[in-house]
Amino acid sequence: MLNRREFLTTLSAVPLLTTIPALAQDAAKKPLRFGLITDVHQDIIPDASARLGAFVDAMTRAEVDFIAQLGDFCIPKEANRGFYEVWERFQGPKYHVLGNHDMDGGFTREQTVRYYGMPHRYYAFQQGGVKFIVLDGNDPGGTSQGYKRFVGQEQAEWLRKELSADARPVVILIHQPLDGPSGVDNFAEIGRILKGEGGARPNVLAVFSGHLHQDYHRPIDGVHHIQVNSASYYWMGAKYNHRSYGEAAHEKSPYLQSTCPYEGPLWAVVTLDLAKGALTVEGMKTAWLGGSPWDVGATPQSHDAGIVRPEVSPRSIVLA
Known about the structure:
By secondary structure, the chain is an alpha/beta fold. It contains seven helices and 17 strands. It has helices spanning 21-24, 48-62, 81-88, 109-116, 153-164, 187-195, 247-252, and strands at 8-10, 32-37, 66-69, 94-96, 123-127, 130-134, 170-173, 204-209, 216-220, 223-227, 233-235, 259-261, 268-273, 278-281, 283-285, 311-312, 315-318. The radius of gyration is 19 Å and the shape is globular.
């Protein structure tokens, strides 16, 4: 259980300078600090409530301005109410993003939106002089088989309007990444919207995503795409089935055997210092539980050890 796991947290916060006019407008504001967790997978991992509870308790102690979960949280069934109540323990603002697995079991997006208390499948909110835009990457369309990975025309048009509405700095929250073909199918189209499509360039600072259960940072056209690692595990697939927990846990959750779980939960704490033009991510490490991907037969060709690891890397990013 969690009280037997070791956590190593490293904060990297180097003062950085920028000359971005839009950031300078907020120079007098204090840094904005928020917690992100993603891919907890209550319906797969047996200790999801304890993992989420560790995050909520840590964010409460840290007195962050708000928290958000980036999808694959839990399906909207009554049996998950206890898990959801752990989330509700955080007393500050809380925001949700829809993941592809949040509608498993035949539930609709609308049912999940109501269960989470979201204002809509996609929406915007403001914190600390920053506009946060939450996108739903589960629209019908695209070419992917199985789960849909797409931002539809109606939502894309809404995004254009939100980005052109004002000059505030913008941060995007989405489950599936926008940095390449492993994310939403129309990532290139959405990328052009983030750049302004030839018009005035929106002030998009960063995109935070989950879904891939990996750890990386990719700057693309001035936007920092940051993949937040799963709170719980790396998905391997049936080819690598093995047992990491006890028999009862595997009997209850058949998909558990297709994962390489993490010993302790992972999350990200992000600090946006607009006065200094700095974005920092607190680092966090744990270990594999029951064997790494390579212990169960994966190869470097099938799983990239450079981004597949039980870690959220510390990052200091100059916003440009």
